[in-house]
Write a structure and sequence with these properties.
The chain is mostly helical and 75 residues long. It has three helices and no strands. Helix content is 63%, strand content 0%.
Length: 75
């Protein structure tokens, strides 16, 4: 399958540098990056399916309540 994507000149230049070092085409580099991203998404989806809110709340109930440090506050 062919796919046309638009990327910035800067991203393409950086990708071309990586592709040259790896001795692959820019197209193969992008295809590999897309594949890695899809596989990571699928892995995270499987991992999330094993979790539960009950387990999350049980673990979080063990964390002591405290105010965030000054540099961590959103106000």
């Amino acid at each position: 399958m062919n796919l046309t994507i638009n990327v910035s000149d800067e991203l393409y230049r950086r990708a071309a540098e990586v592709a040259a070092v790896e001795k692959v085409s820019v197209e193969d580099l992008f295809a590999s990056a897309f594949e890695d991203r899809v596989l990571e998404f699928e892995r995270l989806k499987e991992k999330a399916a094993k979790g539960s809110y009950e387990k999350f709340f049980r673990v979080m109930s063990k964390v002591p309540r405290s105010k965030p440090d000054e540099h961590d506050r959103l106000e």
